[in-house]
Structure prediction request, 314 residues.
Amino acid sequence: MKKDVEQTIAVKRRALEIGFDAVGVATLEPNAHATELDQWLDAGYAGSMTYLHRQAGKRKDPAGIMPAARVAVVTLTNYFHGAAPASSGRVAQYAWSADYHRVLGARLAQLATAIREIMPGAITRCYVDAGPVPERELAQRAGLGWIGKNMMLIDPTRGSFTFIGVVLTDADLAADLPFEADRCGTCRACLDACPTSAFVAPGVLDARRCISYLTIEHTAEFSDAEQQLVGEWLFGCDVCQDVCPWNVKFARPTRDVELGVRPEVAEPDLTALLDGNPDAFQRGFGDTPFERPGGVGMRRNATAVLANRRRAHP
Ligand code: B12
Ligand code: SF4
Ligand code: SF4
Prediction:
């Protein structure tokens, strides 16, 4: 197959028609920030996410994920919904709609089909928040934005409330130039606003203190200290994005119908979550991101939010 600019343009056009907000093409050379990943893992910042240790080799050398692959077609999808409800029991915006793995998984499959039509004989493999793919790194390489001090990939035209989705392919598409600039400058709003002081340095997050980790990835019961750390957050956390000037200025509510807000997820009934009935949980939240911690995890989270509320207003 021959590198073809026209075919690359056709693939990008199809990506935008399918519903992605931005698309770029990244090369797959070894990760220039492999040392940072090793240091992060060695420091124990991944907590109980042991899969990150197992996947480190491929994250450091993404060509190893799919040995025939030459490039990654990287997409961004805006999920910003505007101001958050003021209720207690807050839920991160990325979870307000149907599970994005399902929505974006279907779109990435369509994009992969388009790549195979435009470049006959090409092989493709799709990833969204799964597998050993260093998604933010690839998005930066694909020219889509820089990695901020809050570790988010920030698109200078839409901010960071975006999902990243990736198609690896052996098609010889023309790669974009990486986004080399760091537009954080002297700002440190995210570092100062984090309610748990989870950033040990700019761009270095101790996940064990991060509310997103505690409420979504951590499977054990909370210690007293962990329970207090989550504060009013029931699921995930948006503070280090909400305060970022690039979001304040550029994030616009999505008009994506498949990412419409589900009020029962955006402002859930905490008492119903305490019930712990697995069938009721499955019926209400089986196709939402709450499925990851499951009924048991969400009951733990709801218990913590209610305890913190009692602490704040005895
Ligand atoms: C594990 C994980 C988490 C963990 C750890 C987060 C973390 N900061 O590492 C927890 C559970 C805490 C988490 C939380 C969240 N996550 Co998360 N998470 C992941 C996952 C599965 C792996 C990330 C990882 O490998 N972390 C380890 C660190 C060390 O690696 P890294 O973040 O990729 O960082 C690399 C770069 O920073 C680079 N690097 C280091 N220094 C430098 C310097 C420069 C100049 C450059 C260019 C690069 C660079 O090297 C690092 C190693 O390769 C990815 C999906 C994926 N497969 O990549 C989603 C992902 C990063 N998460 C995502 C989201 C949306 C979130 C939350 C916003 C959810 C929420 N609202 O609660 C929060 C944000 C917290 C935060 N500020 O990071 C999105 C981010 C989208 C975006 N626009 O950036 C991803 C990409 C999922 C997706 N497909 O959309 N997450
Ligand atoms: S998601 Fe929340 S707890 Fe985690 S680093 Fe950002 S502000 Fe801190
Ligand atoms: S809040 Fe400031 S320092 Fe943090 S990511 Fe945004 S611009 Fe960078």
Q: What stands out?
A: The CA atoms of residues 242 and 248 lie 7 Å apart. The pocket of iron/sulfur cluster (ligand 3) is lined by residues 148-150, 184, 187-190, 243-246 (CB under 6 Å). The two ends are 68 Å apart (CA to CA). The chain is about 40% helix and 15% strand.
